[in-house]
């Protein structure tokens, strides 16, 4: 009798819930952890997809891991089943043990992180080897001190809050920094970095920051300097550069040609084997909403150094010039001539004309380049995309 009464009570309760509107049921479900809300999908056909409309999602790693699923798989599965329905609040709760076993951490658009909480997060990652950080909000100082870190990618674009960045990573081998803010950098223990890419926009009064980072990379073997970095140093008279004795690959991106910087860098890189120059035309790949307003200024002129850089005469085996403007930029042609004439071991030169050149101009450029004197048996390749003759 008692069992029958209990069954009837359950039926009455279920019937009561069935009479409630979806909005009211969703409001009730919103007070449950997402794991429990998902379980209601087995109650009936109506409940099967109701949870997918929840505006609030709350994930706890300990609860999810107890089911045998990985945390990332569980979260991704829930998001896929929602079919893009709108999310108002999204919460992830991690135990310290969750981070203790992870080697890679990818943090996108950090919000409401205090300086101390971010540092505490990293301190709880004792085996972290790769850190990807894109977008930081409401943080003044960013401190990245991870003894085990081997790869670091940080990107601050259109973020004005971060004013100080400290990096202390004695095991770091790969470094990428993209920063168009006026952040101050404190760099320590980057002696093992083998690969680095720097995309830094700094006003003329703050270029010491760029030199500080470059001087912290004595073992770098591959270095990429984007057009923001090279443009920032245009007009700097004294270039405080270290000796890059291990550098074998250099990519030099430009909007305005900074010959003084390039020449000095070649003189400081005696063992360079590959040189890639990427010329970006003014106005292309240039997003005014991301880049602070500044004058592009005038290009520096190419002047032959008093002595041929050791890398050019004895070690350079591959040279690429992409976005070459040729006849419209005499200094470019003079630089290519200088490299061809003074390189004794150069095997291959690749010239890719600017997209702004028409087919007739490209044909003329090919003829001029083929007649330049060469110091070695260099193979000259002329990359030419499909273009209409005008």
What can you see in these coordinates?
This protein is of the alpha/beta class. It folds into two domains: 92 residues, no CATH class; 192 residues, Leucine-rich repeat, LRR (right-handed beta-alpha superhelix), CATH 3.80.10. The protein is built from 13 helices and 16 strands. It has an eleven-stranded parallel β-sheet. Strands 5-7-9 form a three-stranded parallel β-sheet. Strand 15, helix 13 and strand 16 form a beta-alpha-beta unit. The chain is elongated, with a radius of gyration of 29 Å. It starts with a helix and ends in an 8-residue tail after the last strand. The C terminus is likely disordered.
Q: What is the typical, i.e. mean, pLDDT?
A: 78
Compute the gyration radius: what is it?
Answer: 29 Å
How many discrete domains?
2
Characterize the main sheet: 11 strands, parallel
- Which range best describes the helical content: under 10%, 10-25%, 25-40%, 40-55%, 55-70% or over 70%? 25-40%
Named CATH architecture of the largest domain: Alpha-Beta Horseshoe
Q: Can you tell me the overall shape?
A: elongated
Ends: how far apart? 96 Å
Count of individual beta strands? 16
- Given the helix and strand composition, which structural class is it? alpha/beta
Looking at the structure, the CATH topology of the largest domain is Leucine-rich repeat, LRR (right-handed beta-alpha superhelix)
Approximately what portion of the residues adopt beta-strand conformation?
Answer: 15-25%
Poorly predicted ranges = 284-297, 386-390
């Amino acid at each position: 009798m008692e069992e029958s009464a209990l069954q009837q009570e359950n039926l009455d309760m279920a019937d009561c819930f069935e009479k409630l509107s979806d909005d009211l049921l969703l409001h009730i479900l919103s007070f449950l952890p997402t794991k429990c809300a998902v379980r209601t999908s087995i109650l009936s056909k109506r409940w099967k997809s109701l949870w997918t409309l929840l505006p609030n999602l709350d994930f706890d790693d300990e609860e999810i891991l107890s089911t045998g699923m990985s945390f990332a798989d569980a979260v991704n599965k829930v998001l896929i089943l929602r079919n893009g329905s709108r999310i108002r609040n999204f919460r992830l709760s991690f135990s310290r043990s969750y981070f203790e076993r992870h080697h890679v951490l990818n943090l996108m658009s950090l919000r409401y992180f205090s300086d101390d909480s971010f540092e505490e997060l990293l301190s709880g990652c004792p085996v972290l080897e790769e850190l990807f950080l894109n977008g930081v909000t409401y943080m003044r100082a960013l401190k990245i001190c991870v003894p085990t870190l081997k790869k670091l990618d940080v990107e601050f674009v259109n973020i004005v809050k971060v004013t100080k960045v400290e990096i202390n990573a004695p095991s770091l081998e790969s470094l990428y920094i993209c920063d168009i803010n006026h952040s101050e950098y404190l760099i320590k223990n980057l002696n093992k970095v083998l690969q680095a890419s720097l995309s830094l926009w700094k006003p003329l009064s703050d270029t010491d920051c760029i030199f500080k980072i470059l001087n912290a990379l004595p073992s770098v073997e591959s270095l990429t300097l984007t057009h923001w970095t090279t443009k920032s140093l245009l007009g700097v008279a004294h270039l405080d550069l270290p000796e890059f004795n291990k550098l074998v690959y250099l990519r030099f991106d430009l909007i305005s040609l900074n010959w003084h910087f390039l020449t000095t860098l070649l003189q400081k890189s005696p063992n360079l084997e590959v040189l890639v120059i990427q010329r970006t035309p003014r106005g292309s790949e240039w997003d005014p909403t991301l880049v602070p307003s500044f004058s592009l200024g005038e290009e520096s002129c190419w002047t032959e150094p008093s002595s041929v850089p050791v890398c050019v005469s004895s070690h350079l085996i591959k040279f690429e010039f992409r976005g070459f403007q040729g006849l419209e930029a005499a200094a470019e042609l003079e630089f290519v001539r200088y490299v061809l004439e003074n390189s004794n071991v150069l095997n291959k030169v690749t010239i890719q004309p600017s997209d702004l050149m028409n087919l007739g101009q490209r044909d003329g450029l090919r003829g001029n380049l083929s007649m330049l004197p060469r110091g070695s048996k260099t193979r000259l390749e002329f990359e030419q995309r499909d273009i209409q003759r005008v």
